[in-house]
Structures are given as structure tokens and as C-alpha cells.
Amino acid sequence: MTILNLEQLNDMHIDVLKELGNIGAGNAATSLSQMLNTEVDMSTPIVKILDISDAANLLGGPENVVIGILSKLSGDIEGIMMFIIEQDFAKTILTSLLGVKEVSCDKLSDMELSAISEIGNIMIAAYTGSIGTLSQMNLKTTVPAITVDMVGALLSVPALEMGSVSDKIIFIEDDFLSGTKDVTANMLLVPSIDSLNRLMEKLGIAL
């Protein structure tokens, strides 16, 4: 049976996505640790299939200001990947990298935006790298674009770009622990349905 939409994903499919998320988050934690020069641990990622409106609520509501780092996927997997950074995560990163004490997502300097963009680039690469390695599929990503905006505005991008595919997204919630600071970051994945079918087939999962 071919998957026609994200609603058709069963528990086995979700388990596969959780494992991909787990490996991607592990790679991301390692990269973060190297960049911040400090130990970064992670909990097991939470993977959900959500309506875009539900994702907005989990991210603090449509009016919550966050940082979004978006990359388009091409090659064997087509779609969109967006890394969402909230206030606490941004502060932890920028305090460690630049020594800043006060951080406001809607008042970031060019240097701070550049540092956050590099973190997002690393995180997206960690996830796409894990997917490519496990599936032996060729993934290409565009240079990530960084935007600071309200959650509702940011989530309108995948809604517009991939709305013909599905009104749902794959939502991966990651908890990272650096020192005594526990921060959450979220990865949103919206693959084309053809790409999702190819991925599951490559991984040997019955459709």
C-alpha cells in the first residue's frame, strides 16, 4: 500500500521516524558540544504528526516570537525542514558563544543572527546526514534562511509551500542539557509524499 498522506502513517512508520530523529538529535548534540566547547546531553526526541495549528500551540502560540531556520530539501527526498529556536535556547547558545547576558529574539544583532544561523545549519545538517546515511539516499539542502517572526507567520511557510501535499507536519521535539540548563529546540519536517514512500521503502518498511 502506498502512503497517500501523513495521516496514514502507522506505529511502525512513526517508530522509524523516531529513530531517525534520535540519531539526528544525537549528531546535533555532538556538533553543539564541539561548537560550544562544553558537554551537551540530550533526551530521547519526541516525534509527533501534527496539524500546523497544533504545532503552533506547542511552540508557545501563534504570536510567540521565535527564530526559524528554513532549508528546502531536494534530491531523493524533497520537502522542507525548519529548525525552530525559542528564547531560552537562543540565550544559552549566544551566552556560550558570544558572552552576551541579555537576549531577545526580536532584537538580535547581525553577529547574533549569524551565530544562530550557523547553529541552525549544523542542526539541519545533523538530521539530513542521519537520514541520508541510514537510507543510503541522496539529500541536498539549500543554504538555510533565517527569519525572526511570530510562530504563526513562520508556520505559514510550510503551509503555503507544502499545503497541496498535507496540512500536517512531522514535529520533532528535542531537549538538550548543557551544564545545568535544559533547553528545548524543535525540528519540523514536511516531506513530499513520494519522498516519504521512497524513504520507507529504502529502510525496508512495509507500506
Specify the CATH architecture.
3-Layer(aba) Sandwich
Largest sheet: 8 strands, antiparallel
Q: Would you report the number of β strands?
A: 8
Structural class, by secondary structure, is: alpha+beta
Low-pLDDT stretches: none
Q: Calculate the mean pLDDT score and round it.
A: 83
Looking at how many chains there are and whether they match, the oligomeric state comes to single chain
Name the CATH homologous superfamily.
CheC-like
Count the DSSP helices: 6
CATH class: Alpha Beta
Whole-number tally of structural domains: 1
- Portion in beta strands: 25-35%
Enzyme class: hydrolase
GO molecular function, one term: hydrolase activity
EC number: 3.-.-.-
Organism: Caproiciproducens galactitolivorans
Can you offer a commentary on this structure?
The termini are close together. A hairpin with a 2-residue loop joins strand 7 (168-178) and strand 8. The protein has helices at 11-36, 52-58, 87-98, 110-135, 151-162, 193-202; strands at residues 40-42, 46-51, 65-75, 79-85, 139-141, 145-150, 168-178, 181-191. The radius of gyration is 16 Å and the shape is globular. Strands 1, 2, 3, 4, 5, 6, 7 and 8 form an eight-stranded antiparallel beta sheet that branches. With 207 residues, it is α+β, with helices and mostly antiparallel strands. The chain contains six helices and eight strands; from the N terminus they run H-E-E-H-E-E-H-H-E-E-H-E-E-H. Helix 3 crosses helix 4. The relative contact order is 0.24.
